[in-house]
């Protein structure tokens, strides 16, 4: 499995950032402290395994509301897929997208990661400098066991759990302890057992008191039941006394109801129905009378209108004449429009001629001829004139600018030539600077040689010291072997004595030769210095003079080039000026030609000629439009006179008074004539239609009346009456009987409230005196019974007080109860101790099984890495055994316990073990390895060796290395380096 890319929408300091990772090799992420390396590391773990809400809030960015992002991964079995995880979306759970567009949830991601959890990943594939810090904080006695525990179980969690279980077991029970909880409970249980035996004699008295208390309680309950029965009987008597007035009213109502016949036939809701039918019939009968009267009125109006109608031929003739009205109105309006237009044209014509003010009259305009090409000629003349004017101004300005530039440039060249140094003086300065530079270089080399010599002296002293120690060591060993040889009389020890003496002398002689050779080499490196040199201020002044000299020469050369360019521009200007004069002469000839054709142009500037052309063209158009308008007005007058003649002929036959009126009034009379005719015809049609509708309405009203009248007859039949008065009388009888029955029902409900709905009791006759006497007797019995109850209660309270006093003291029952509680508590603690003991044994067994499975592979790989990092100083690493802590062995077969190693060596051992665990476990889980400044405290040599190990691991697995050290980045310059 490999990381492809990461997109962070918001996580800690990272907002809207993206990172791309190589599929193979090392991805080195370099950044200074506080650059966000650890935050990026945690983001990757967050995308893989999620994070609790409180921890997510800690990494919520300050400048963005979103927390989360995407991580693209490529796996062998699933291909490339993207993990998306955002806080507040799906409660922070992951959503995975594959390349085919499928979506999967957190469970699928867990399966893809082969069930690896956050803790497992941290322990095998991810570690940082913080792991080293936690490791160093452990006690020295436990260091070896913890080191192996971290390597094999993934973190310090198992060690902590094991310690916790041991502490809890010790807190619960120790065979000879007094403070553990179970030991304390056993002591207390023995004491309580003794007290229980002592309090057994008091138990019998307590039981007798309880029996006496139970008997008194039973007697009190019996008397309370008797009191309750008397109370209920007294309430019954009081209810009967309250119900006596109601019973009297009930008897009177029954007598009144007996006066009515048993059967009163009458329709249900008969009176209301009858009144409703009457209210429906009256409007219908009134409507029928109104319709009959309207029918007669319509017939009379039709007769009058028929007598007033004129002949139909006259009406048709008037209609034909009215059709000319629209034509007449159109002619009048059109004439007015043409006349208005003519007036406007004439006014505009005069106004525009006056506005031109060029000495031209209306007659001149009528004779004026403007060909189509005239406008083009005038426009060209205007444009040419303007262009030549602008060109003239531009040429004058260019001439002035070029002249000024030439003078300025010549002055600048003269000033710079005056500032130049003498060439001989410049040569002297250069030679002096060269000699000074050479002398400084020789001084630096001499200083370096002196430093080497001092370093060599220190090293020589160390080597002489070690040689002396070696010589004396050989002599001492030889003496010891000689003594042993003399005592044991063995030739082997004599040979050993001679051998050690030869070795000691030989290494001493070889060392002196080596030191003499190095002295000669270092002496040859001494460099002779000269005394040639200048002061810093003098050197700076010389350098400034040379720089100024070179700069001035460059400026003069640049100005000379500029002067040549200006002269060339002046030659071009003379040519352009000659062309301008020729163009101006041609334009003058064209202007004279146009003034000869149109003399009025003499009074107009050339810039206004095109505008004048448009104005003249417009004036000519206005003159032509005015002539056409006059012709149209004349034609409309002729059409108007023809309509007047036809109207006079009709008026002479119909009404001679109309002939005295004008055309508009005659047309208005014709409209009234035709309107009256049509109005009378429409009224006749309306009246006839209304008569038909009236007849239909009468039939409809009669049909509506029939069912109402039928229903009234049916009501009479049910009530067994023939007239309206007898119907109303019977309705009153029925109403009175209903009211009496309602009152009776009300009284029955009141009586039922007293006697529980037993209607048969309503007919019982009660005597008021008897009821009062029985109620007083019951009250007396209640008072006597209440006194007896109070007496029994007082006696019961005394006995219960004695029982309570016995219970509150340390009696047998209380002690027995305490004894049982202590036994239960002891059983619970024993169960808890057994569970913890079993858990500890299972944890130890699990660790042993895990170690047996992976121990040899991990230790073998750890030996390889540890030997490589320490340059072969250690040849083996041994895990803890029975009575033996974690220890390492040097090539000299010297054993070191892990607590005896230096911090740097412990760090190297820890890193070796973590590398070994990652490599062994990665054979089962192919996941990327993440390292966050894990070897920040290593020197350059150790860091380089670790980089070689990482490159070797990266050939099989993808590696993400976070670091803040530049020298580490240099080791991976050929890998993917991401700078944060």
Automatic annotation (TrEMBL):
The reply to whether ATP-binding figures as a keyword in the UniProt entry is no
The UniProt entry's coiled-coil ranges are 206-240, 328-355, 542-576, 619-656, 775-809
* Spans traversing the lipid bilayer: 466-486, 492-511
Q: Name one Pfam family in it.
A: AAA_27
Q: Which InterPro entries does the record match to this protein?
A: P-loop_NTPase (IPR027417), YhaN_AAA (IPR038734)
**What is the top-level taxon of the source organism?**
Bacteria
Keyword Transmembrane listed? The answer is yes
Task: Outline the extent of the YhaN AAA domain.
Answer: 1-201
Keywords tagged on the record: Coiled coil, Membrane, Transmembrane, Transmembrane helix
Question: Which Gene3D superfamilies does its entry note?
Answer: P-loop containing nucleotide triphosphate hydrolases
- What this protein is called in its record is YhaN AAA domain-containing protein
